[in-house]
């Protein structure tokens, strides 16, 4: 049995979880999220807990068991507290500014880069070199943060670029002079 999959997911006060036709809907104070559950996995709501079970020990069932439980737990956390991912902009002349709901980056290119947030995501700018990406879906927050990092990945020689908060960039030695 999966060590993660067999654990029940506690439903906090103010959150409702409903299961209909292998679709789990989680509603909370911050919003609503839905998950489509794969075929062999069953999800049952009993009291203030969500139980995820599998019918057999086949490879596919085992792999989906813990995954389904974790996705449901992530959605419950998302609708109660939400998720936030921080980004830092490092480099001379590199900066970010809030432009309405979106943000505008100056990353050493000949033009500024404007990014609008997708549905369910909000941007917050702290100073001129920190960005916070917030939302209720862990997957969406991580994907948007990864796309922002892709605009100018941290390079290994000077460490310039967009990096996650707390990310350590391994530096390389430059060319040795004569």
Oligomer: single chain
Beta-strand share of residues: 35-45%
Largest sheet: 4 strands, antiparallel
By DSSP, the count of extended strands is 13
Distance between the termini: 63 Å
The helix content, as a percent range, equals 10-25%
Count every helix, treating DSSP H or I runs of 4 or more residues as helices. Answer: 2
Mean pLDDT across the residues is: 94
Molecular shape: elongated
Query: In sequence order, what are the helices and strands, one letter per element?
Result: EEEEEEHEEEEEEHE
Structural class, by secondary structure, is alpha+beta
Radius of gyration: 21 Å
Q: Which regions have little confidence, pLDDT < 50, spanning 5+ residues?
A: none
Strand order of the largest sheet: 11-12-7-13
Keywords:
alpha+beta, 4-stranded antiparallel beta sheet, 2 helices, 13 strands, elongated
Task: Give me the secondary-structure topology.
Layout: E1 9-10, E2 16-20, E3 23-28, E4 31-36, E5 42-46, E6 49-53, H1 59-80, E7 83-90, E8 95-99, E9 102-106, E10 113-115, E11 121-126, E12 130-135, H2 138-150, E13 161-164
């Amino acid at each position: 049995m999966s060590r993660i999959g067999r654990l029940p997911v506690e439903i906090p006060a103010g959150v409702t979880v409903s299961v209909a036709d292998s679709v789990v809907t989680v509603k909370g104070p911050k919003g609503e999220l839905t998950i489509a559950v794969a075929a062999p996995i069953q999800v049952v709501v009993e009291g203030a807990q969500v139980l995820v079970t599998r019918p057999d020990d086949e490879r596919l069932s085992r792999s989906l068991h813990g995954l389904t439980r974790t996705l449901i737990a992530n959605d419950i956390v998302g609708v109660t507290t939400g998720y936030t991912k921080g980004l830092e902009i490092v480099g001379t002349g590199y900066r970010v500014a809030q432009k309405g709901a979106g943000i505008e980056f100056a990353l050493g290119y000949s033009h500024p880069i404007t990014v609008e947030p997708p549905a369910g995501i909000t941007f917050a700018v702290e100073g001129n070199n920190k960005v916070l990406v917030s939302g209720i879906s862990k997957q969406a927050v991580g994907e948007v943060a990864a796309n922002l990092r892709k605009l100018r990945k941290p390079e290994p020689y000077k460490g310039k670029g967009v990096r996650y908060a707390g990310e350590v960039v391994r530096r390389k030695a430059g060319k040795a002079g004569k």
